[in-house]
């Protein structure tokens, strides 16, 4: 039993009269003074040494954040430069192999790609494709001066615009970088001839044959000139 309980048993319960009107005089009782709330403890002012330490900590934190941002930017720049150097090296090596790939393509067209030479050629093409090299240029493609190099030019009927009618050498690129434009023979509609709808079908066929013969003659003349220069 606690001490307060023992006192209550000895002296009886404590009764507090909180009525505002006195039952004997019927007068309004004066309000009893309540204890004043305890004053909040005063916070002592910060010592100058502490304020100086806080300012130094904020300054050092700002320096570390600035150094971290500079390091991140430096690392990104180094990684970007490293990738540029790597890509440039790959492009330089693959450019030297373009003539070899041309010979392989020519041998394949003439049925001379067989035996061990065929295995070596296929491995070379596989490694080139591994590093992103791809060939382009198909007969009938619209002529694009950004990716095509026109070596021959002629007029033909039945065309909507400049068209690659013969692929003399395929083009090569790595993604969007052109290593060598496709060398092509280009034909376009003759502005002095009537529209294709007004020309009989037989005339269109004859014109197409004549264009093919002209392209063959021009290609043969260029090969002869190249051979004379080599001699």
Question: Which labels suit this protein?
Answer:
231 residues; three-stranded antiparallel β-sheet; Nucleotide Exchange Factor Grpe, Chain A, domain 2; three-stranded mixed β-sheet
**Major sheet, described briefly?**
3 strands, antiparallel
Q: Residue share in helices?
A: 40-55%
Provide the spatial order of strands within the biggest beta sheet: 1-4-5
Question: Distance N terminus to C terminus?
Answer: 128 Å
Q: Can you characterise this structure?
A:
By secondary structure, this protein is α+β, with helices and mostly antiparallel strands. It has a domain at 135-226: Head domain of nucleotide exchange factor GrpE (Nucleotide Exchange Factor Grpe, Chain A, domain 2), CATH 2.30.22. 50% of the residues lie in helices and 15% in strands. It is built from five helices and six strands; from the N terminus they run ααααββββββα. The protein has helices at 3-11, 48-96, 98-109, 115-130, 201-230, and strands at residues 133-136, 148-155, 163-169, 171-174, 177-180, 182-188. The strands form two sheets. It has a three-stranded antiparallel β-sheet with strand order 1-4-5. β4 (171-174) and β5 form a beta hairpin. The longest helix is centred in the N-terminal third of the chain and has 49 residues, at 48-96. The radius of gyration is 48 Å and the shape is elongated. Mean pLDDT is 78; it is low at 196-211 and 222-231.
